[in-house]
């Protein structure tokens, strides 16, 4: 794939809004690293959790504008888009409909997370409610949900409903442990994953926006076409609000 082609749909590089980047300087450092890794577009997805103070829609747009201008000033070749990692709760669909929460780049896709230990019926019913409200849920870091992934047929049921799944690059490259690496590769090879993203929180270390190593592994193990779908093609359809 050509340089600066990857699209990252899950990244916490927006400064001062969650447990990701602390300030503008760290955000720019994350963007520099992302560009060096071959990422050309990023959907910024700060956490949106009901039990903590979260960035407003206005604050999200203002910070993205500031960060984009700063990146252009330093000639960092990355285009930024608004989004959020939405923690599921009752009424989430209504909050989205009221314009209180961001979708992915203004599309019909929404990035959703649950507690890792959450029971499967609750996850399934929550995703169904979002689908019924007219949204296309993307289950963030699906490999973390043991109740979904480790029991045969459950993830397939979610996909049949119309859901999509995202896996973290660090899970595939082994930074999250051998067991998580094995599980993540099984999901990818069985065709149960639609997006591979960084879920980056820092400018350095294991939670930085690293993607090139994972991209090379995907091309070697799954082929260039599959790698392109997971790292670029499906994400491009999100940006253009097209059906995957």
Question: Could you explain how this protein is built, in words?
Answer:
With 244 residues, this protein is of the alpha/beta class. The protein has a single domain (6-239), classed as Metal-dependent hydrolases (TIM Barrel, Alpha-Beta Barrel). It is built from ten helices and nine strands. Strands 3-5-6-7-8-9 form a six-stranded parallel beta sheet. The chain has a three-stranded parallel beta sheet with strand order 1-2-4. Helix 9 (212-222) packs across helix 10 (224-239). The longest helix is centred in the first third of the chain and has 17 residues, at 57-73. It is globular and about 50 Å long. The chain starts with 5 loop residues before the first strand and ends in a 5-residue tail after the last helix.
Query: What is the approximate shape?
Result: globular
Give the SSE order as H and E letters: EHEEHEEHEHEHHEHHEHH
- Protein structure class: alpha/beta
**Beta-strand percent range:** 15-25%
Q: Which CATH architecture would you pick?
A: Alpha-Beta Barrel
Rounded radius of gyration (Å): 17 Å
Q: Top keywords for this entry?
A:
244 residues; alpha/beta; TIM Barrel; six-stranded parallel sheet; three-stranded parallel sheet; 10 helices
């Amino acid at each position: 794939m050509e340089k600066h082609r990857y699209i990252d749909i899950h990244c916490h590089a927006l400064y001062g809004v969650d447990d990701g980047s602390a300030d503008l300087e760290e955000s720019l450092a994350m963007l520099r690293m992302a560009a060096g890794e071959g990422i050309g577009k990023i959907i910024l997805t700060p956490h949106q959790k009901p039990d903590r103070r979260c960035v407003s829609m206005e604050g999200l747009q203002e910070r993205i504008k500031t960060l984009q201008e700063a990146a252009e000033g330093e000639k960092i070749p990355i285009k930024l888009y608004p989004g959020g990692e939405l923690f599921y709760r009752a009424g989430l669909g209504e909050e989205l409909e009221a314009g209180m929460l961001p979708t992915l780049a203004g599309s019909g896709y929404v990035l959703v997370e649950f507690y890792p230990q959450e029971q499967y019926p609750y996850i399934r019913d929550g995703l169904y409610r979002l689908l019924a409200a007219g949204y296309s849920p993307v289950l963030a870091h699906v490999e973390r949900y043991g109740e979904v992934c480790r029991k045969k047929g459950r993830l397939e049921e979610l996909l049949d409903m119309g859901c999509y799944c995202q896996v973290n690059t660090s899970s595939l490259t082994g930074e999250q442990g051998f067991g998580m690496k094995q599980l993540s590769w099984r999901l990818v090879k069985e065709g149960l994953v639609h997006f591979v993203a960084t879920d980056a929180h820092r400018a350095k270390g294991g939670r930085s926006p690293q993607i090139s190593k994972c991209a090379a592994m995907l091309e070697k193990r799954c082929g260039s076409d599959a790698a392109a779908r997971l790292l670029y093609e499906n994400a491009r359809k999100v940006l253009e609000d097209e059906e995957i």
